[in-house]
Amino acid sequence: MTMTMMTESVCYPSTKDVCMFIAEYSFWLFSSGSTVIRLEKNVRRIAEAFGMKVDFSILPHHIHITVRDSGSLNSYTTVSEIKSGGISFNINTMLSRLSWDISDRKIGFDEAKERLGCIVRSTGSLDPWLLIALVSFANASFCRLFGGDIVAMGVVFISTAAGYLMKQILMERKVDFRLVVIICSFISSILASADGLFSLGCTPELALGTSVLYLVPGIPFINSFCDMLDKHYICAFVRMTDAVVVTACLSLGLLCSMMIMHKGMF
Amino acid sequence: MFVEFIQDALFAAIAAIGFSAISTPPRQAYLYCALIAAAGHSLRFLVMQNRYFSLHIVIATTLAALLIGVLAVILSSKSRVPPETFLYPSLLPMIPGIYAYKTFGGLVMCMYQSTEGAFNHFFYLFASNGLTCFFILLGMAVGATLPMFMMKKISFQATREK
């Protein structure tokens, strides 16, 4: 009897340790753009691997987590803050792999903690200039998909590059993201209106319309609908509201530049 | 028609690579994102602009999202990444961005109108763009996540080491 207890005490960490680990794990997984269903599955998998159960609720700015042992004798509750904006599918992938490695008993608790630390420190992001080039090419391609001519594509490329560069500069200086979107949308659309102003191409309205599309919060929009389909209505509503606010900021920047350039949206 | 079809696939692939770079996917995901986005977007192009029939953008987007969802789930287990890693960046070229900001544009323009007729016109633009945007997003989410839920075992065990 004593032996078993000793073995158990060696194998399983305390409810507090597991809860704190799951809180950090949830914070990073949710902040990296995971859906609630994935978070739920991964977190339960980890808790079960340590012989525990977990319940959690997601609030607009926090995740509330309770971990209890299988006999419900001990429980521990903590509240973890949610960071918004830093979507990273690289972190999402590595955290999902970590949950399976814990579940399949390939790694112990201490190693799992170490690996979590390594994962969150690894950025995996591209060189900022390469990122600007890729986003600009993507937005120019977007312009083509909507029927824009080669001149419009060139104008969109330049206006996106300028806007995205400004976004990186402002984000580095920790400027509020909504203000960043307004400013970048304004800069990109002002530059894109050059197509019509100097009569460069045949589709100036498409250049103007697509120049700001790199700012559309596509992933939060899709995530919110996925959460809604999975009946996580509060989380879906929060994500949807965030995405709508960003879209409103984008429209505000675009409308300001259109008013200055005497252009109509419709 | 064939050249336009290929062009659509090519530009959708470039758009998917560029926009996926913002959300920092694993390096091996870029190629898959490009292929899946090209397949999805060109399907949408095909069902919307062919000589025999033309589906509404909401239905066409839902069908394209369904194809993207199936491909993302199948390829996710092959490359040991969650299907969302391929799914979301591949869907980005179909996000109704123009409808989204035109919704707000219509709303703002409503406030500037002094006559009922002009107000109704801009309110109509606000509602029509907003509803189209909403239903495209809903169709995309339903189409893309349906394969994930139908193939739950593959979807949620993709990252498990065999």
Give the strand line-up of the largest sheet of chain A: 1-2-3
Largest interface: A-B, 60 and 57 residues
Evaluate the radius of gyration of chain A: 23 Å
Main beta sheet of chain B: strand number and arrangement? none
Shape descriptor of chain B reads elongated
Order of helices and strands of chain A: HHHEEEHHHHHHHHH
Helix and strand sequence of chain B: HHHHHHH
- The 3D shape of chain A can be described as elongated
Terminal residue distance of chain B: 44 Å
Overview of this structure, please?
The complex is a heterodimer of chains A (266) and B (162). Mean pLDDT of chain A is 88; it is low at 1-9. Chain A is elongated and about 75 Å long. Chain A is built from twelve helices and three strands; from the N terminus they run αααβββααααααααα. Chain A has two domains: 2-121, no CATH class; 128-260, no CATH class. Chain A has a three-stranded antiparallel beta sheet, covered by helices on one side. By secondary structure, chain A is mostly helical. The mean pLDDT of chain B is 89. Chain B is built from seven helices and no strands. Chain B has helices at residues 2-22, 29-48, 57-79, 83-91, 97-112, 116-150, 152-156. The interface between A and B is large, with 60 and 57 residues.
Pick out its properties:
heterodimer; A: 266 residues; mainly alpha; 2 domains; 3-stranded antiparallel beta sheet; 3 strands; elongated; disordered N terminus; B: 162 residues; 7 helices
